[in-house]
Design brief:
The chain has 117 residues and is of the alpha+beta class. The chain has three helices and six strands, in the order ααββαββββ.
């Protein structure tokens, strides 16, 4: 959960370096009928996220996080997150699956499958 918390905090700060640090690479996102892969650290760009986040996006929040399966080096989570405007109103709510892995001792989000744009 700490990895997810760091991910969301970095995203909301628009801190690209910190955001990349919360991911393991290659990083995979399945959404909007596409599979997108970022091959190495530093290739995930905040600007790309902002393009798909929706007009008026200010921040995102975890609404639900449930561990589905857990092993020594990998955790599957069912999550729901919301995207919100500056006034706190909701732009959208998205159920997703996140896979968090430990690679070379570092926990990071390796893959995500979401219904978000």
């Amino acid at each position: 959960m700490a990895t997810l918390d760091r991910f969301m905090a970095a995203l909301n700060r628009r801190d690209e370096a910190a955001l990349n640090d919360t991911l393991n690479f290659p990083h995979v996102r399945i959404a909007s009928g596409r599979v997108t892969t970022w091959p190495t650290a530093g290739t995930y760009r905040v600007a790309d996220f902002l393009e798909r986040a929706g007009d008026g996006w200010h921040e995102s929040r975890w609404e639900e996080r449930t561990v589905i399966h857990a092993g020594a080096d990998k955790v599957h989570l069912a999550v729901v997150y919301s995207r919100r405007r500056a006034d706190g109103s909701e732009l959208g709510r998205f159920p997703s699956i996140y896979i968090v892995t430990r690679v070379d001792g570092k926990w990071g989000i390796q893959a995500r499958s979401s219904f978000a744009g």
